[in-house]
Design brief:
Radius of gyration: 24 Å
Strand content: 5-15%
Structural class: alpha+beta
Number of strands: 12
Mean pLDDT: 93
Low-confidence stretches: none
Strand order of the largest sheet: 6-9-10-11-12
């Protein structure tokens, strides 16, 4: 067995995008209650590949199979799935699992298990916990219940322990409550800045040995007194090695501690909804819109039960704290003001060209390098970028996105159902923009065109001047264009359909949004 040692907090990056977690759970859901065997793992692997959550190299090297993997309307046959698995031996080994696909399965599901959404071990029944079911149910709601999804992740993160039985780490703390408490100490100190923790200070939290928030706060104050807010990676790296009482620089690499681990730490902590990025991504702070939840987490979870047994820990992680479901954001907060201020700020500070490039990165499923944008989940980022592009290209257009925001006005999750993603008002027309990453026929026609038509008819009944809608996607299915034309003939509503390149090209050459109707 591996020997426990003090090491930096490290979250698996196998499923970096949290939005993939519900789909991975769905892939194993049919086998709930069944004993985990290599045969069951084989069937789960087929489901994961069928859902296109994992793409072995064999797929990209085989033309006909690659074409299916790129299509949202086509699926692999069972025979093709068997061939893909046969031709893709996995050179991989995890403790407790056979070499190959069995170990690949554990790599996929280990973090999902650690967050308490699922319980499994070879030769034991597969269990989907209460929070695992809640996560899948929220994901499958129409429209998807992003607020509930965020709450489920908060439930996992506020209980997550560095030294849980699935880890071999001598560090003992609860990372999210510890982070919140340190920030709170800094806020309460009139001699400190009020923006939270600087990005370069986060490795200290990642490496900290215990759950003493006041000690971390004093340590951070000492660093600030010594070097202020400008210090090198080397300086922080040496501090971290000292905290970990190690000089193993081959295992504890500076790039990992000061950059890779920090990025993943920010992504995971922000999944809770309790944290905001400030100063162009230089500081991590408590989201004041969620202050009540943050206080509850600090008051309730700084003291925590410790577990030696893996099953007992997952049972603890997999139950929902009903209190966080009841905490609501104060209704006195005007989200629209901060949302629009930030939208117009980004529209003025970023160039049209950079926004166009970011839009293409999203639609091509490539990572952003931007300090802030890369920490906004992809569907929400698409709504944000589209809103910015509309502000930049149509002077005088009143652009009103409906995505949820933190106290910095940055998007936290997509617009809720019942509203257009982005509502735009001009002197001569109202326009409603819907954006989606879905490219399949059924998704675009059933989930987009039909609801858009219904909402547009309602809008036209209330307004005296022109109203139309625009659907933007990475690729528009031919049947989607036909469905939009049919809605024009049937109901007299105008629904324009643009793939991302058409959208960028058309808004770039028109002076008013109403001109899109005449293209």
């Amino acid at each position: 067995m591996a020997v426990s040692k003090a090491k930096p907090l490290s979250f698996s990056t196998t499923i970096r995008n949290p939005e993939r977690i519900p789909n991975f759970i769905r892939c194993i859901l049919p086998f709930e209650g069944k004993t985990l065997t290599s045969e069951i793992i084989h069937e789960v692997v087929k489901n994961v590949i069928r859902e296109k959550e994992y793409t072995p190299l064999y797929i990209s090297r085989t033309a006909d199979i690659k074409a299916i993997s790129k299509s949202e309307d086509e699926t692999f046959s069972d025979k093709q799935l068997e061939k893909i698995i046969e031709m893709s031996p996995q050179k991989h080994k995890e403790a407790g699992f056979e070499y190959g696909w069995d170990s690949r399965f554990d790599t996929w599901y280990k973090m999902i298990k650690e967050f308490g959404f699922i319980k499994y071990a070879m030769g034991k029944p597969i269990t989907i916990t209460a929070t695992g079911h809640m996560l899948v149910d929220a994901y499958m709601e129409k429209p998807r219940n992003d607020k509930k999804i965020q709450t489920v992740f908060l439930n996992a993160l506020m209980r997550y322990q560095t030294n849980n039985p699935l880890r071999k780490n001598l560090n003992e703390n609860v990372p999210l409550p510890l982070l919140l408490k340190v920030i709170q100490y800094l806020h309460d100190d009139p001699r400190e800045n009020n923006a939270g923790l600087a990005r370069h200070e986060l490795p200290i939290l990642i490496c900290w040995r215990d759950n003493d928030a006041h000690a971390v706060y004093q340590y951070i104050k000492g660093i600030r007194k010594e070097v202020g807010f400008t210090c090198s990676d080397e300086f922080i790296y040496e501090k971290c090695l000292s905290i970990l009482e190690s000089d193993n620089r081959n295992y504890l690499k500076m790039e990992k501690i000061c950059h890779e681990a920090v990025d993943e730490y920010i992504r995971k902590m922000r999944m809770s909804g309790l944290l905001s990025l400030r100063g162009n991504g230089r500081f991590l702070d408590i989201n004041s819109f969620e202050a009540e939840s943050a206080v509850y987490v600090m008051d309730t979870y700084m003291e925590y039960p410790k577990f030696d047994d893996e099953d007992a820990y997952i049972d603890y992680m997999g139950t929902i704290d009903s209190k966080i479901l009841q905490i609501e954001i104060k209704q006195t907060i005007d989200f629209s003001d901060v949302r629009k201020q930030t939208l117009y700020k980004y529209a003025s500070e970023m160039s049209k060209e950079s926004i166009q490039k970011e839009l293409l990165l999203v639609c091509e499923k490539k990572e952003s390098k931007h300090n802030i944008l890369r920490f906004i989940n992809v569907p929400t980022r698409l709504e944000f970028l589209t809103s910015i592009a509309l502000v930049q290209n149509f002077e005088g257009l009143d652009v009103n996105p409906n995505y949820s925001v933190d106290d910095e006005g940055l998007p936290t999750f997509t617009a809720s159902g019942g509203y257009a993603d982005i509502e735009c008002y001009d002197t001569d027309c109202d326009s409603y923009f819907e954006v989606t990453l879905m490219c399949g026929r059924s998704d675009q026609v059933n989930n987009e065109i039909i609801p858009i038509s219904r909402h547009l008819k309602e809008a036209k009944e209330k307004k005296r001047h022109e109203s139309f809608s625009v659907l933007v996607a990475p690729v528009i299915h031919p049947d989607t264009k036909e469905a939009a034309e049919w809605q024009k003939m049937k109901s007299g509503v105008d629904i324009l359909t643009y793939d991302i390149n058409e959208f960028i090209e058309n808004i770039d050459k028109e002076e008013k949004v109403s001109c899109l109707l005449s293209i």
